[in-house]
Amino acid sequence: MSKAARLSREERRRAELEERRARRHDRRRPQERSILLPLSLAAVVLGVVAIVVFMVATAPPAGNGLQPPPGGGNYALADGQALGREDAPLTMEIYSDFQCPACGTFAQTIKPALVADYVATGQLRLVYRDFAFLGPESIDAAVGARCAAQQNRFWQYHDYLFANQQGENRGAFSQARLTAIAEAAGLEMDAYAACVADPAQRQAVLDERATASSEGIASTPTLVIDGQPPIVGVPDYADLRQVLDGLLEQANLSR
Amino acid sequence: MNGAVTAPQAGLRRSGLLIAGFAGAGLLISLYLTAVKLSGGVPVCGPLAGCDTVNSSIYSQFMGVPVALFGAVGSAAVLFGALAWWRNGWRSGLLLTYLVGLASLPVLAYLTYLEIFVIGAICAWCVAYAVTAVLAWLVSLRAMSRRPGAARQDAGAGGAA
Q1: Radius of gyration from C-alpha coordinates of chain A
Q2: With a threshold of 0.80, does the pTM exceed it?
Q3: Cβ–Cβ gap B6/A99 under 8 Å
């Protein structure tokens, strides 16, 4: 049998197969149609339910009810937006945004450990740098924190902000809630109100971000320790300790 | 003209390959964004800004899980269904791609709304993912609405012309 004839038979066989498949499809089509509409509706409902769950999980809290920060921080060594002795052998700059969830994780897990292990012992000075890039409420919160720094209560205000992150640009850091945070952080309110109304504070926040961007900072949190390559994201505390201990050893040797 | 008889069915099933291509691209994008999110890095955005902002946003994760990972699961399901349809003519695979795509449409619309109106930044990777998902769904919708042998007449007409 020639190759062409074989091919032709094969093609006929495939055509019959396709025809059977089409007929089967035709038989099943009413059945498929009857389940397609409910299945389609179920799929759309599933998508909408996913959105609702997501919205609820990220919704800002109603009213001004504030969550107090966990534990009291040791801020005896606070110095505006810095924390720690000025002559500490190491300085860590923390580029952060008050709406950034990873910054919240850093502030609530790594920072307290750093304060206890390095800042309180005079080995490390923390300096908070604004990288307010997540929208208008990031800038408003940063302005409020600068005003808290003027009364040397930056870190209390900082802790309240991170303890009350919820949603993003949806009112968690509205002016009303920032005022409530300022009161909770123990600020003198007339001075605070005058400070947040000063456009120079806002400009300072914007300028600090622009400077950081020009230095290559692109995300938060980013940690820079004495000009070393930046540590991007929330580091593992054991790894961070290793870096700090290594740098402290070098600093002690060079003294 | 027997060859023309089987070609249209193959053509219809080739839509599975097209869906798989879109889903594969979506899977790669979402896996990349997941890896970047988990490593705490910044997505490479080229001349476009916004990926860093969107990726650092509170909306980039849900209950501690990167949102991109949910996208990866969806794309993997579409890829599986599309390949099953293409390779074996498994119509349930096509139905799976259609339903997963349909369920993801409102979610993608909402996430795009968040980018534009809440976060105020556009992530090109996220937009590219949304485009692949919508295209995959449109192809699956078209394939769903056609009879397996329906294109035969088209081919016949094409051959006559």
Answers
A1: 29
A2: no
A3: no
